Amino acid sequence: MTEELTFDSKNTIAYEANARVSIPTYDTLFSMVQSYFRAQWGEKEASLLVVGAGGGNELAAWGPSNPKWTFTGVDPSKEMLQMAEHKSIQLGLEKRVKLIQGTVDDLPSSDAKFDAASCILVLHFIEDIQQKLKLLKTIKGKLKPGAPFVLVSAYGDPGEAELQDRINVWKTFFFDVGYESSKLDDMGKGIMKISFIPEKQIEVLLEEAGFTNITRFYSTGLFAGWICHAE
Ligand SMILES: C[S@@+](CC[C@H](N)C(=O)[O-])C[C@H]1O[C@@H](n2cnc3c(N)ncnc32)[C@H](O)[C@@H]1O
User: Fold this and answer.
1) Is residue 2's pLDDT more than 50?
2) What is the DSSP string of 104-164?
3) Whose CA is nearest to atom 13 of ligand 1?
4) CA nearest 117: which of 94, 87, 77, 147?
5) Residue nearest to atom 1 of ligand 1 (CA)
6) Ligand 1 centre from 135 Cα, in Å?
7) Domain extents for the chain?
C-alpha cells in the first residue's frame, strides 16, 4: 500500500466518517451479505473468516444478530484492529471474536477450515495482480469445500472513460455532503492510486483461485461485490 493509503490512526478515524459517503449503500451491503450467509446455514453454528476486519464493521453488522457465528478477523493495521476490538467489546462479542494482526498468511495452519469468508474493500489496496491472486488462493485454501465467499472491491479499467464517469459520480456523493469542488478534484486524482482492475479480470482471478458460481450481486459507484463458493 502507498503511504497515503495506509490505515494509521488519523486515517482510521476518517475511515468511519468517509465510508458511508464514499459508498452510500455501505450498510445495505453488510445486510445483503448477512442474508446470503444466513441462507446457507439457517440457525446453525458457523465460523467466518473476515479478511480486512479492521474497523470492526463486519463484526458489528453480523455479530449481535447471529449468536451462533464465530469470527476470525485478520488485518495488518494495528489502529484499525483496535477499533474492531473496541466494537467487539462494546457489543459483547469478544468470546466469539478472534483478531489477528497480519494477513491470511498469519493464520495458524492448524486452525479448522472456515464455513465462510469475506474480503470487503481490501483487494484494491493490493497493487500486484499476482499478489491479489495469492490472497484469493490463500482464502480459498482456508475454506471448507462449498463454503461461500464474498468479495467486494473497487473495479474498472483505469484507461477507460467508463471508470472516469463513475469517479465523477463518486465525487458527487462528497459534494452533496458539503465537500468543496477544489478538494473533490484532488480526491478524484487520489482515488486513482488504488488498484483498479476490470470486473472481468476480478472474476478470472476468483476462478483461478478456485471459486465457482461467481455472481456479481452488488454495485455502488466505484465498488462491486461478488458471491461465489470454494470448490
Ligand atoms: C477500507 S478498509 C475495509 C475494512 C472493512 N472490511 C470494512 O469494510 O469496513 C481496508 C482494510 O484492509 C486492510 N488490509 C490491507 N491489506 C490487507 C491484506 N493483505 N490482508 C488483510 N487486510 C488488509 C487495511 O488495513 C484496512 O483495515
Assistant:
1) no
2) GGGS-TTSPPBSEEEEES-GGG---HHHHHHHHHHHHHTB-TT-EEEEEEE---TTSHHHH
3) 52
4) 147
5) 121
6) 12
7) 3-230
Pocket of ligand 1 (CB under 6 A): 7, 19, 51-52, 54-55, 57-58, 74-77, 80, 103, 120-122, 125-126, 135
pLDDT of residue 5: 58
Cα gap 162→154, rounded to integer Å:
13
State residue 7's pLDDT score: 76
| Best residue for ligand 1 mutational test, from 75, 127, 135, 149 (most atoms within 8 Å of Cβ) | 75
H-helix or E-strand spanning residue 182:
helix 181-191
Average pLDDT over residues 107-120: 94
Q: What is residue 88's predicted lDDT score, i.e. its pLDDT?
A: 97
Atom 2 in ligand 1: residue holding the nearest Cα: 121
Mean pLDDT of the residues in the chain: 94
Measured in Å, residue 183 CA sits from the centre of ligand 1 at 25
Residue whose CA is at the smallest distance from ligand 1 atom 23: 52
Cell numbers given for 151: 468479495
Ligand 1 centroid distance, CA of 151 (Å): 12
Summarize pLDDT for 33-61 with one digit per residue, the tens.
999 999 998 889 999 999 999 999 999 99
Q: How far is CA 35 from CA 29, 38, 159, 217, in A?
A: 10, 5, 35, 12
Architecture of domain 3-230: 3-Layer(aba) Sandwich (3.40)
